[in-house]
Structures
1.
Amino acid sequence: QVRLVESGGGLVQAGGSLRLSCAASGRTFSTYVMGWFRQAPGKEREFVTVINRSGGSIIYADSVKGRFTASRDNAKNTMYLQMNNLKPEDTAVYYCAASSRVSLPRNQDAYNYWGQGTQVTVSA
């Protein structure tokens, strides 16, 4: 029902910045809570951030607080993740996901739709 496509990943030096985008298909984007997850090599997929339908409420994982900023533009059916002061431990495939829940879930099982992922690599 919802197709999600991430973009904006790449290679950056530690301390640098990247802005990821998640473009959603359909006309129901604004009805979904949207999240970002990431999966580092050899690690489980982990929660990064979740933003509510209006964009006015956001939760961040402790590891990215103060460095990452989530936002969304419902008119463009797009969610963003601004990543500043990147660290090598941020290296991962980043996935966007959509949830039909009314809360702001951190668990990946709460998300109905997933993008294909975009690679972020941070060199030391």
2.
Amino acid sequence: QVQLVESGGGLVQPGGSLRLSCAVSGRSVSRTTVAWFRQAPGKEREFVAARFRGSSGTYYQDSVKGRFTISGDNARNTVHLQMSGLKADDSGVYYCAEDSTIILSSIFDGRHYDYWGQGTQVTVSS
């Protein structure tokens, strides 16, 4: 029932900015947890950021703190990931994930999420 569609990926220069979007259907983003994960070639999928139970709280991987911001647009039922100061290490496929009942301690592990988008490619390169 829940569907997630990522968009906004692309090629950006180091130090640049990019905004990813996760359009959610079947669940209100104001009442559920939506997270972003990424996977670079040769690396495991890793947690990036999460918006826990709507506006209850936001959480970030240490390496992106101060550079990335996760936010929700309730009118469009969309969650965004605003990325700035991008580095080559930020490159990878970015996925959004959703779970309405996940507990806070589990939000950092993708195995706990019920729904996933198809991913959008982010490439940071000169």
3.
Amino acid sequence: QVQLVESGGGAVQPGGSLRLSCAASGTNLRFYVMGWYRQAPGKQRDLVANITPGGTVNYADSVMGRFTISRDNAKNTVYLQMNSLQPEDTAVYYCQAIFVGAIYWGQGTQVTVSS
């Protein structure tokens, strides 16, 4: 069974930083497209960033320049470094893994940015 477990969420003040981790079990993520999505209360789940097996990255306009997605295939883990956090970044952040014909999601981790 493929499982994705997010960690690293929490509460931070505006301008602060967090690093989210997504650890996978039950599969090798080496050839998966990995992504981070977020969903705020009353809003849709939207793409934050993703990364291909070759390391090509893509970011939502709202986080470009502030967030960095990376992967460590040896650890079977993907990361999201979040800097300059703002209240509008408050959401549940979900890890996604995509392989041919299959999409997997983690349970999510809460990020709250407030003063």
